[in-house]
Design goal:
Layout (H helix, E strand, L loop, with lengths): L1 H8 L14 H13 L5 H10 L1 H4 L12 H10 L6
Helix pairs in contact: 1-2, 2-3, 3-5
């Protein structure tokens, strides 16, 4: 788990930093674990995050809380598939 999180720290964030509310590494990790739990829609991923927020906070910063399903989708629209 720690290896994955350390790899995500090196991720290049293409977003405008002045507008960033949620950390990209947090969002990618959320989607990774949600997909493992069979959450494949953005709303399902958001609901997964709400259900497991306490557990996720042990590993993720989540400084501004849980990202909305729209925020998660927007970040993934910007991330290069080659990176993932």
């Amino acid at each position: 788990m720690n290896d994955i999180l350390e790899w995500l720290i090196t991720a290049e964030d293409p977003r405008q930093q002045s507008k960033v509310k949620y950390l990209m590494k947090d969002i990618i990790t959320i989607v990774f674990f949600a997909e493992l739990a069979n959450a494949s829609e953005w709303i399902e991923i958001y609901l997964f995050t709400q259900a497991y927020e306490a557990l996720l906070r042990k590993y993720l910063s989540l400084p501004n809380g849980i990202p909305s399903h729209d925020a998660i989708e927007r970040v993934f629209a910007m991330v290069s598939p080659e990176y993932l």
